[in-house]
Amino acid sequence: MMRFLLISCLALAGEAASAPSPPPSSKSSSSSGSASSNGATTCGSVKEMYKSNTCCGSPTKELGVQVVPAPHKSLYLTANPCKDQKPKDGSGFDNFDCIKDDVVKATEQAGADVTKGYQGKMDVGGRTPITDAYFKKGLCPVNVHWHVGAEHRSQGEYDEGGKGPGIAGTPDKDHDPGRRMAANARYGFACHHYDASDAKFTKPYKWQHCVNMHVGETYEVHWPHSALGSCGTPHQFQAPFYDGVFCGWVYEGAGATSVTAQQLAHAVGVQAQVFVIVNDENYYYPNLMRGAIVDGDFWKDVAAYTGSTTGTSRNNIKCSAYTPITWQVDRKCHKISASSFDKMCADMKQNPDDMSSDLYAHGARELVWSKFSANNQVEFER
Q1: d(Cα 172, Cα 258) in Å, to the nearest integer?
Q2: Which of 25, 118, 282, 295 has its CA 20 to 30 A from that of 101?
Q3: Which residue from 368, 233, 356 is spatially nearest to 309, judged by alpha carbons?
Q4: Which tens digits make up the pLDDT trace of 270-280?
Q5: Are the C-beta atoms of 219 and 361 separated by less than 8 Å?
Q6: N- to C-terminal Cα separation, the chain
Q7: Where are the domains of the chain?
Q8: What is the rounded average pLDDT of the residues 337-353?
Q9: 70 backbone dihedrals φ, ψ, rounded to 5°
Q10: Alpha carbon distances (Å) from 287 to 215, 249, 291, 344, 348
Q11: β-sheet bridge partners, residue 149
Q12: Higher confidence at residue 299 or residue 67?
């Protein structure tokens, strides 16, 4: 029936449908492809897929894509218990001055330098990160999002010597906090893989679901985890991620949540993995939404430390109050196909909670100074 539908529509279509408008881009539209801005599967995109795969006259030919249901209806679910669980402004989680009256007020921050052997200079009083897999400690992933460029630094992997095509912005070369791209998202460190003479780093990809993404650029993906998440339910993944992290947090009353700093560091954690996007299906991975890739060289050399939330509302002047939490960071930069990211965005769009605010890259926080970095960086035990 599906084959009949595709062939019938294509036969009746006649002239090629006009290409839908691409998502906003800081450079030419060719980097973003000809997908509609909301990533919907249109008749025109189906026709283009059919033609590009030379399907006409080959009804049994197997495609390298899937057509998945995307109806405008869905199963009725109970109310989202995580909605608006992000702490309110003025509730003690607002950003604050890292230093006041020449006194360091900050507790440990992120992203830090994770180069093997590096130690921050902030004494955190024996506080420790989680050094085992999060699921073994009762934490589940509650969100996925990513930053343009790496927020962490790993010497020789993603650092000031990295490079990219320059479409999404200029990678950080001198720890400049003001380095930005056209959409006002700061670009962090870049990986060393980019090769302008290799087509897999330069050939445009026709994005269907992710917004304003580019082949050849570096992105740091974050998977926040929480022991307070709605783990194992349809409401596990949330946007903003704070709703998922604080889903089970009780703010008032006799049962109000009260935890020590060490308990918090072992109740909330983030996986971080850095990728260069390539247009090469040899690097396809179908399940990027659910967590870091843990296989072979992926997640083989991982730093663990305690820090904070990141993002460009924080820097070395304004610090995050969401601390301490565990960070587990893959020190290696890996190549991943653009289709892996686009599949992740498609999965995110199928999620019950609206994750459209995370379908594009967020800006990267500047590297945290050593005085704000915890002195507890250790090796993750895979």
Answers
A1: 39
A2: 118
A3: 368
A4: 999 999 999 99
A5: yes
A6: 47
A7: 1-73, 96-379
A8: 96
A9: -145, 60
A10: 19, 29, 8, 7, 11
A11: 219
A12: 299
Residue matched to tokens 């997908």? 35
Nearest-angstrom CA–CA distance, 38 and 208? 8
> For the purposes of burial, counting CB atoms within 10 Å of the CB of 48, is it exposed (0-12), middle (13-18) or buried (19 or more)?
middle
Q: b/e string for 171-190 if b means 16 or more Cβ within 10 A?
A: bbeeeeeebbbeeebbbbbb
Measured CA to CA in angstroms, residue 107 lies from 95, 98, 267, 292, 375 at distances of 12, 8, 17, 27, 12
Q: Distance between CA atoms of 50 and 41, rounded to whole angstroms?
A: 13
Q: How far apart are CA 98 and CA 337, in angstroms?
A: 39
Q: Which residues contact 89 (CB under 8 A, 6 or more apart)?
A: none
* Pairwise CA distance, residues 360 & 239, whole Å: 13
Q: Considering just the CA atoms, what is the radius of gyration of the chain in Å?
A: 22
pLDDT over 70, % of the chain: 86
CA atoms of 118 and 369, how far apart (whole Å)? 12
Instruction: Tell me the per-residue pLDDT of 82-124, one tens digit each, with 9 for 90 and over.
Output: 999 999 999 899 999 999 999 999 999 999 999 999 999 999 9
Amino acid, res. 25: S
Question: Angle at the Cα of 238 (from 186 to 82), degrees rounded to 5?
Answer: 130
How far is 122 from 128, CA to CA, in rounded Å? 13
Question: What is the reported pLDDT for 39?
Answer: 63
Dihedral (Cα; 346, 348, 351, 354), 10-degree rounding: -120
pLDDT, position 269: 98
